[in-house]
């Protein structure tokens, strides 16, 4: 299969939609994982830091989504800015992939069907995101 600019453009938009979905999904994470009860044991400072970080995670996902859905063509232009943004996105999601396997303990997912499925689903998602950003970055490097 030939990786054409149109194919890269389409996949960047797909990632944008997926990131919007992740932003929405993260709104339900606190209830799913009983954060209210879990965080009640934290000090006020740690609880509020955790809550602020969660808000900014959702905002970051939403902004990444908006960038990919509104500026897709500009990201494929062979400019220093597009390359810098794509490099940053590739590093961000590549590191997220590494954390999936080397930060989270296997105790969390091994032997737990739902957690195992989610572990592999998110692993594939991070690999896909990284591959799309790598392809986009490579496509901007051929010209200019």
Account of the 3D structure:
The chain is an all-alpha fold and 144 residues long. Helices cover 78% and strands 0% of the residues. It has seven helices and no strands. It has helices at residues 5-25, 29-32, 35-39, 44-70, 72-75, 80-102, 113-141. Helix 1 packs antiparallel against helix 4 and helix 6 runs antiparallel to helix 7 (113-141). It is globular, with a radius of gyration of 17 Å. 17% of the residues are buried. The mean pLDDT is 94.
N-to-C series of helices and strands: HHHHHHH
**Largest beta sheet, briefly?**
none
Helix content: over 70%
Report the portion of residues in β strands: under 5%
Unreliable sequence segments: none
Number of helices: 7
Integer-rounded radius of gyration: 17 Å
Q: Count every beta strand, where a strand is a DSSP E run of 2 or more residues.
A: 0
Can you tell me the overall shape? globular
The termini sit apart by 25 Å
Structural class: mainly alpha
What is the mean pLDDT?
A: 94
